[in-house]
Every structure is written in structure tokens, then in C-alpha cells.
Amino acid sequence: METNEQSQHLTNRRSFLLKGGAAVGAASLGAGGLLLEPSEALAKGGLTKGDAAILRFLAAAEIIETDLWQQYNELAGIQDGEVPGGSGNPAYTDAVKVLDGDMDQYIHDNTDDEMSHVSFINAYLQAHRAQTVNLDKFRTLPSSQATGAQQIGRLTNLTQLTVDTSFWTRYRSDSQNPDLGDTLPPDHLQAIANTAGFHFAFIEQGGTSLYASLAQRVTHSEVLRILLSIGGSEIMHFQTWHDKAGNAPPLTDPTNGLVFPDLNADGEATQTNLIMPEPTPFLDRKFPIVSIIRPTETDGAATGALNALTADGLFIGQSPEFFALLTGLAKAADAARHGS
Fold this sequence. Notes:
The longest helix has 28 residues, at 49-76. By secondary structure, this protein is mainly α. The chain has helices at residues 12-18, 49-76, 90-96, 103-127, 167-170, 196-215, 221-245, 301-311, 320-335, and strands at 251-252, 259-260. It is built from 9 helices and 2 strands; from the N terminus they run αααααααββαα.
């Protein structure tokens, strides 16, 4: 079984996370050490095939989230016993704190939360004798060379991001909803797409929609409770980063001409303090507009989330095997139906 050298320094749930659930024992690892083999038939009252598939995809998504958040924490968060690794980058930390003086604490806590999500979902799958997810084999991407970053293998690549910032106008529009086929421009704020604050918000708004979308496909009430409860924390993360991203000061980078616009210059479409979801059409335009999380369309939700992360540039340099595994997990989650 592959392990990450940083896991040698972690204990309890952090160790469980970074070892991909190694606590269950190497003897039960499946081919390649990627997935644990389930029992031939789940116990009565256990997980349905669909519920297990949804939880496995979410476990993979949370492992990926944890990997990128750990990298941010090494540079601009708080490195401690809860979220160890890295030594901090004072210059980068100061720059990020322009968005909020408590950014280091928020980054730390978001990282800690994602680690807990992985540990819980994998432990729940194991308790029901279902496959659990281990992506350690794919920790092969290089680390940032910036001061403070650990030089270890990564799952995600933060050096070539192309962040979709359409969420900014999506949550401010009272007439457009992607669930009803509306398309908001993906490059609306491209000039500021590579800022950490907007990447934080992009990642967490994705989780906000993903949990709500997949919750519609589960069978057991306890699995529904898991998705609603973890999904709620993703909403809180998004709300925090949505607020902080609006504090990005307008400027033009003298080294490359990158423009950070004044977000309050174009009215409500980009107004920074409009962080509550504006009412928008939902289900059918015949109904009054309503304040909601969006999108929450369930068809193809897992595959859509994977495509969004791929388009973000997070997986540049990953292997075909990595994409094949994640694609399979996403398709299985999308194929799940209530009662199946």
C-alpha cells in the first residue's frame, strides 16, 4: 500500500486520512491498493449500491479538497497539531490577509474540516463493509517551490489554475439559474481568477452544490443525514470565502499587467457585500423567484463536479489511471437512484 511520507507525522484521523484508511489493515486492500473490497453482499440494513457509490465519490472529492487546502495552509494558514505540515510563507500570508486579518485561521479551519470529512465518510463506508477510497498512489505532482511548502507528492496542481468565477454573478442574479439552462459567463472576472480568495470560494461553492445535488439520489435516511450535515458545512465555507473574496483591492500588477477590477463599479452584478443568495427562478419560471443554493440539478452532478475541477487546472500532470478512477467513481454516483 502506498503511503505519503507526511503521514508518518500524523495521528488519529489525520493518519487515517493520509494513509487512505490504512487502519482497516493491508490484507483487505483491493487491486492496486486503491479501493477496499466490499463484502459479497451488504448486511441487511446496510448501504445500497447507489448510496455507497455516492459516498465513495464524495470521499474522493474530499480527499482532493484536502490536498489543495493543505497546500494553502502550509503557506498562509496555521501549522499546528491539528493541521501539520509546512512552515508558512510570511510574505504570502501578509498578502492574503489583505482580504481579512483572520485569513490564516479560516484557511486552517477549512483544511481541518475537509480532513474530518474524508475520515468520517471512509470510516462510515468501512463500518458498512463497503469500499473506501485511497488516492495515495496518485500523490505524484510536485509541490510549490515557495518558501514554507513541504516538498512532497501532491494530488493537485495549484500552479496553473483557471478559476471559473461565474459563481460571483450567479449568486447575484435574480433572473438566471443554471438549473434552468441559463449560462453565466465563465470569464466574467478572469482578471482576478488566480487570486487565492476567489479560488477558495470556487472550490467551496462546488461542494455546496454537489452535496445538495447528490442528496436527491440517496436511499437511506442516515446517508441523507450525512450529506445534509457535511453539505451544510460546505455552505458555511462558501459563505466565508464569498465574503472575503470581495475584499480584493483593485490594482494592476506592474509585472504582468493583470488587472484586479473594482468589483463595486458595475452595480449589483458584482457588488461585494451581496453575499446572501439573491432570489432567482427555481424549478420552473412560473413560480416566484426564491433565494436558493444553485445549481442543484442532480442529473450528472458528480461528473459535472469532476469536470469543473479538471477545468480548474487542478489535475494538470496527473496520470490517465487517475482520471479513469475518478471518472468511474463519478459515473457510479450519477447512476445511483433512490431505492437502488
